[in-house]
What we know:
single chain; 267 residues; alpha/beta; Rossmann fold; Dihydrodipicolinate Reductase, domain 2; 7-stranded parallel beta sheet; 9 helices; binds NADP nicotinamide-adenine-dinucleotide phosphate
Amino acid sequence: MSERIRVLVSGARGKVGREVIKAVLGDNTLELVAAVDHNGVGEDAAVLAGLPACGVLIQGDLAAAITETQPQVMVDFTSPASVMENVRIALMAGVAPVVGTTGLSARDMEEIAEWAAAKEVGCLIAPNFAIGALLMMRFAREAARFFPNVEIIEYHHDQKLDAPSGTAIKTAELIREERRAIRQGHPEEEEKITGSRGGEFDGMRIHSVRLPGLVAHQEVIFGALGQTLSIRHDSISRESFMPGVLEAIHRIGAYKGLIYGLDKIIF
Ligand code: NAP
């Protein structure tokens, strides 16, 4: 068997991080070499993920974990406040980041692109790792050629920190590539409660719903004369992200520089 890819998981104790630990341990072409989180330092990463102990203990310091364990890939599902520094630390050490954490700004991404290019290391930032969500975005982009009137409604659990979701922003960006520019709704419409028409993106509206019980869902609704078209994707468990995460871990070594969107490496 060829050498296994050495993987560090950052945010290993989080909701998605635990699934990543399970997925990496379940793939015999990958080796989990380190698990990093603010919480649970010293606990076995596999036990936290509901599996028998694997001997990889949670560490609190990302830079020290990289120096000690020499990973090839860092998978990051942490928080909007932490991700930028984590990506910087990984890239400066020559480790390829596979980033699921959302909330990075366009400016952040420009900076990351510069770091990745300078170090000649691949870095994937993917707002959504679920293959069905990628297809939803692709179909929405296609539909926008015919239906320029569109609103995006994204639904997430109430622990999510950023709004709108990275997926909603990415969807709007893709739609913008195909849609003729129009400003939607009545020109004189008035919001009785601020924000009731949602966030404005290039004339489109994006609405963010936050409720316990939800995981990650999105509906893109197109309206035209006498018809509507709804394109919807539901991640009903966090396992839905894992085939995409594994695919990214396997492929990132072949790239140099920043890649934004899993679609760029799997379609
Ligand atoms: P979560 O349950 O809060 O987990 C995040 C974990 O990372 C927490 O244990 C947190 O600790 C830890 N953490 C934060 N900063 C850290 C740092 N600098 N170093 C080490 N650990 C750190 O969140 P989640 O639901 O797993 O989501 C994580 C991120 O992934 C969010 O941005 C979410 O939007 C995104 N997400 C992306 C996708 C996708 O497909 N791209 C899918 C689902 C979620 P503390 O609690 O102490 O801060």
